[in-house]
């Protein structure tokens, strides 16, 4: 595997057992280059979100092989994967998924506090910087549950960025944002990919968003129908 | 750097929904306080029952059981089938009471379990006041030691128990006996023995044990005066009453010393099987009640912790998605559980104590009781606290371990 490859999926197959056994992913293989800004598109039910969860290492119930940053993920224990996610993968969920009882700032800080590589003051400073970029400086001390949907989504993005992960994944990260904020998020992702070499993989329905990415992989019925070189 | 952030999260969970935390704390508090209260109450009742039972009963009694069954002496000497004709067989001589009581008392005093010992001269007599004659028991006692074994002084209605020591002509009567004889303190009473000796004594006190059969028949005299009345020597004793440290051990101790003492040595269990049964049953009930409370309270605590964790299951998934591992999750919720357990435990002990004190002031005027009985034993309190912590630990650990194991995506996908 070449050093420029950020992520490699090898013949990934996944079944859902509920309500009846059903094959969602039917052998998906592709590579993602470092610093690449990739969009996963497809109709609802095409398996794109399911694939993203497999790629994010949160879903371990699949067949095939997954390598991230040159490391084989398949077969690792839950705890090993958690540690890996903490430092290497930032994830933005479809519905933000903040911890409602914590402040916005605290939410952003948690992954870094867990990683424990920097001092608390430094983490707080960086978290504030991320929130400022996303136009959330005023909301930093509010409880996450008190923020609007769009604000929460942006906090979730700041949280995904805090540990400077090599890969950032988003499950429709801009789904709840207006066009102005969508543009802000897009520009941030674009900047991260270009300047810091961070890899971005997002599932999106937004055609404009997809069109501006480096590459678009389209899924249909659990198969890749376009976008693999 | 693993710990602080986990404790931080636990702290936020504890403080953000104070009401919910309070409910969980109250669950623990309730369980522990009820455990403390029920155990204190059971122990208190048991202690009172024991006190009542042993107000007229020593743990071990040594006495002369009278002559053996000698109705058919011929059988013992001649072979079976020998014809004999003996009518109106009589015992011509047998020892009454305990000989060499000094040696036996000396021997008993050397037993490590012994707590108190008192010699008695008990004799059936008639108490007479004018035309009134009442049959009763005259108990000649070693005043100080008798009090040590039976706490006799606490049963005095009138007069002073220790006065018996200084007054060879003084008699202390049971309240029922005094009433039957129409006697008051400072009146005279005539005592007639089976051998025909009679002497007049002064009533110097009246006692009441609330055991009617005792109050109606018993009178105390100093042991010296009793020997004098019976014309016996200064070593004459009919009973030696012994109390040991733990009354449950009486049977064992009695069996051990019996072969050495040439008289009947009887534990309270052997002479009062119904009391033994009562005591055992109360102990069993106490254990059963304790266990039931432990179980019910423990299950309550488990339920509350389980609910708390189920409610947070989505957040657990989010934490895992962010890179918190199973150990972190377990630690967060164990911290949560232990804080709830500690706080609930301390409040529970205080509350349990308050309930105990309150119940202890509810009037209950039967026999010698004034209020409902209650025991305050540190064992009950420390047991309750340890149990509370252990339960919250288990109750927090089991669901949090379950939560720490699942794939985060299963919960997030919904």
In short:
The complex is a heterodimer of chains A (229) and B (414). Chain A is α/β, with parallel strands linked by helices and 229 residues long.
Task: Give structural notes.
- The complex is a heterodimer of chains A (229) and B (414).
- Chain A has 229 residues and is an alpha/beta fold.
- Chain A has one domain (35-61, 77-226): P-loop containing nucleotide triphosphate hydrolases (Rossmann fold, 3-Layer(aba) Sandwich).
- Chain A is built from 7 helices and 10 strands.
- Chain A has helices at residues 48-55, 78-88, 104-115, 120-133, 149-161, 179-195, 207-211; strands at residues 5-16, 22-33, 37-42, 63-68, 71-72, 89-92, 167-171, 199-203, 215-220, 223-226.
- Chain A has a 6-stranded mixed beta sheet, sandwiched between helices.
- The longest helix of chain A has 17 residues, at 179-195.
- Chain A is globular.
- With 414 residues, chain B is α+β, with helices and mostly antiparallel strands.
- Chain B folds into 2 domains: 2-53 and 278-413, no CATH class; 60-74 and 95-271, no CATH class.
- Chain B has helices spanning 2-16, 18-53, 73-77, 101-109, 143-150, 163-166, 175-180, 212-215, 223-230, 250-257, 268-271, 273-311, 313-321, 326-359, 378-405, 408-413; strands at 60-63, 114-129, 132-141, 156-158, 170-174, 188-193, 198-207, 218-222, 239-244, 264-267.
- In chain B, a hairpin with a 2-residue loop joins strand 2 (114-129) and strand 3.
- Chain B is elongated.
- Chain B starts with a helix and ends with a helix.
- The model of chain B has no long low-confidence stretch (mean pLDDT 85).
- The chains are: A alpha/beta (229), B alpha+beta (414).
């Amino acid at each position: 595997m070449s050093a420029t490859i950020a992520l490699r999926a090898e013949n990934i197959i996944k079944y859902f057992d509920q309500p009846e056994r059903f094959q969602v992913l039917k052998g998906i293989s592709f590579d993602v280059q470092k610093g690449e800004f990739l969009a996963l598109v497809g109709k609802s039910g095409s398996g794109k979100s399911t694939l993203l969860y497999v790629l994010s290492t949160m879903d371990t119930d699949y067949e095939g092989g997954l390598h991230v940053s040159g490391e084989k993920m398949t077969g690792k224990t839950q705890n090993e994967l958690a540690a890996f996610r903490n430092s290497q993968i930032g994830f933005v969920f479809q519905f933000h998924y903040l911890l409602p009882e914590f402040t916005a700032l605290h939410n952003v800080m948690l992954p870094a506090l867990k990683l424990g590589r920097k001092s608390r003051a430094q983490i707080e400073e960086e978290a504030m910087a991320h929130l400022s970029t996303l136009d959330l400086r005023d909301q930093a001390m509010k409880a996450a549950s008190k923020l609007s949907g769009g604000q929460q989504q942006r906090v979730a993005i700041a949280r995904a960025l805090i540990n400077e992960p090599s890969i950032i994944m988003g499950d429709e990260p801009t789904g709840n944002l207006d066009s102005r904020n969508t543009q802000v998020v897009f520009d941030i992702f674009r900047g991260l990919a270009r300047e810091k070499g961070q890899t971005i993989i997002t599932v999106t329905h937004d055609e404009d968003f997809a069109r501006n990415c480096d590459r678009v992989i389209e899924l249909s019925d659990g198969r890749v129908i376009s976008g693999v070189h | 750097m693993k710990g602080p952030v986990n404790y931080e999260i636990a702290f936020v969970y504890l403080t953000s929904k104070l009401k919910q935390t309070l409910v969980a704390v109250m669950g623990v508090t309730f369980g522990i306080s009820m455990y403390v209260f029920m155990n204190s109450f059971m122990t208190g009742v048991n202690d009172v029952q024991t006190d009542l039972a042993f107000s007229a009963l020593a743990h071990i009694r040594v006495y002369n059981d009278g002559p053996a069954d000698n109705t058919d002496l011929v059988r013992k000497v001649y072979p079976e089938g020998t014809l004999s004709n003996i009518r109106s067989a009589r015992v011509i001589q047998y020892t009454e009471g305990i000989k060499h009581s000094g040696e036996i008392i000396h021997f008993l005093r050397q037993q490590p379990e012994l707590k108190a010992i008192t010699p008695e001269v008990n004799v059936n007599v008639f108490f007479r006041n004018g035309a009134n004659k009442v049959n009763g028991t005259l108990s000649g006692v070693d005043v100080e030691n008798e009090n040590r074994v039976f706490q006799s002084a606490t049963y005095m209605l009138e007069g002073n128990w220790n006065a018996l020591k200084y007054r060879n002509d003084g008699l202390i009567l049971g309240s029922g006996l005094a009433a039957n004889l129409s006697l008051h303190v400072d009146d005279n009473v005539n005592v007639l023995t089976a051998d025909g000796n009679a002497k007049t004594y002064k009533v110097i006190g009246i006692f009441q044990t609330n055991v009617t059969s005792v109050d109606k028949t018993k009178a105390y005299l100093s042991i010296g005066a009793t020997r004098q009345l019976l014309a016996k020597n200064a070593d004459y004793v009919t009973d030696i009453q012994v109390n040991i440290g733990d009354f449950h051990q009486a049977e064992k101790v009695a069996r051990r010393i019996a072969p050495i003492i040439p008289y009947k040595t009887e534990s309270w269990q052997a002479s009062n099987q119904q009391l033994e049964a009562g005591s055992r049953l109360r102990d069993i009930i106490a254990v059963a009640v304790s266990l039931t409370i432990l179980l019910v309270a423990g299950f309550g605590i488990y339920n509350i912790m389980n609910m708390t964790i189920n409610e947070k299951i989505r957040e657990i998934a989010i934490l895992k998605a962010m890179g918190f591992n199973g150990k972190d999750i377990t630690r967060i919720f164990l911290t949560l559980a232990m804080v709830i357990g500690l706080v609930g435990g301390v409040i529970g002990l205080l509350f349990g104590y308050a309930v105990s004190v309150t119940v202890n002031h509810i009037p209950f005027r039967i026999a010698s009781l004034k209020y409902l009985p209650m025991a305050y034993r540190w064992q009950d309190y420390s047991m309750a606290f340890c149990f509370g912590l252990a339960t919250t630990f288990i109750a927090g650990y089991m669901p949090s371990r379950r939560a720490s194991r699942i794939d985060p995506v299963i919960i997030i996908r919904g």
